[in-house]
């Protein structure tokens, strides 16, 4: 198993033993997580792909890997094109490709704990046209051939105190119970890890960069709940916190518990609960109500305590990042700074706060052409120096007990070209347009997405990712349901209390990347003469935007005023936390245009 070719060959041999003509490999776990524990990194083990979103299909003679526009360059660098076809989503899909490439009468395997029911129906329909079928497996064939597959984490759960959560777990369960009664339901299945963490005010260490624990839960209409988690992960402090209304079971008992809900009306989320959950409920005689997980929306709408905590986290994180930006401005021109050493130094500045629990994702530290790889992940073989007269893109964030941060800055190392400055300013104009947006209550993120792209579009340019994602409260750095993206991905009404990113970008393959990202809070706006409730954004992230990359000829007076006002806020919030050379640098970096 020393090469990816060997692993692909071993999987095909296992499929023959299992009498399967193919297998689908998604990048997720049994909780439909975006970021997964090492034990669930099946796609990476099989292909070498290190991105956070993708899928693969293995047939007897062909294999394909599917990624979206964020990973177009990365997949070609990490996955051998002589063994894998590169497929772009949404231009195609796993189901469509199977419909075109599966053999007549083929049996294509899938793990029902790693796919939604909707996907199963879609893929089954595509295969049916070929007389082929989708076959649920009892044991994932990759697990059978992965000799040193890691064990799931055994880390202990910890209590997320109400002083940070803002609301007690019992009150949250009661809200869910009231909702279940209104829906004429007896119980709701919680399988998304961040939903469980939020509902029970617990956190964990089972997924790198995301403070969640591997668990399932069933919340009942009487406000009691059953929590399914490995017993060695629970201590007396957590038991006391959960209280008598929460019954704790071994995680392995969850599947049988689904069968035991016979005769009950049970809510399960079609987007977040895997097909195996729906299959077990239906085969056990439950009536399944396909409704959204009742934790999703209240988790997204932050309460006053969570908002205050987030602002405190942003304040200290902004100071750490500003110290780092000063360090880069001083050290990079001397030579010897690399993407890896820069990322390590940034982490050390965050650790110096004394409150960092983890990074919120692997730092994207992209110098020159590596900055054009949207979700670039630096490693030894791709590590580049920060060279003079180039751009450096750094996208990073921290996990603090009071908030989760995510911020991107693009820096000029030396003298930028006129093209770099102009395109950076087009991205900045889009960022400012979104930051200043006023919109009616009920507006969707999809209605706002074009505001950030308009100046790039006017110059024949664009970027292949969404403009904004939701962010959790000491939880996932990518949180739904809110997004700022095209309508297919941004159809959730924005509500006060939601936190999102504002991150337009531009990427020139082989040369450089540009992204400017702050987090923003949806707030109510008092508009004189308004005939309906209006909303807007409050910027939450504070660190200098590189003035050396701003082309003033492209900026209008209102945009210049916004940037000056933003930098004045940076000085007011971050300035008191800095001293010496770092404070002097910040004064210069935030000087009025």
From TrEMBL:
Alphabetical UniProt keywords: Aminopeptidase, Hydrolase, Metal-binding, Protease
Keyword flag Hydrolase: yes
Domain Creatinase N-terminal: 7-138
Domain Peptidase M24 C-terminal: 533-593
Cellular component, GO, one term: cytoplasm
Residue intervals of the Peptidase M24 domain: 310-524
GO molecular function annotation: metal ion binding; metalloaminopeptidase activity
Pfam family, one: Peptidase_M24
UniProt cross-references to InterPro entries, sorted A to Z: Creatin/AminoP/Spt16_N, Creatinase/aminopeptidase-like, Creatinase_N, Pept_M24, Pept_M24B, Peptidase_M24_C, X-Pro_aminopeptidase_P
Key word Repeat present: no
Family the entry assigns: Belongs to the peptidase M24B family.
Protein's name according to its UniProt entry: Aminopeptidase P family protein
Annotated source species: Sphingobium phenoxybenzoativorans
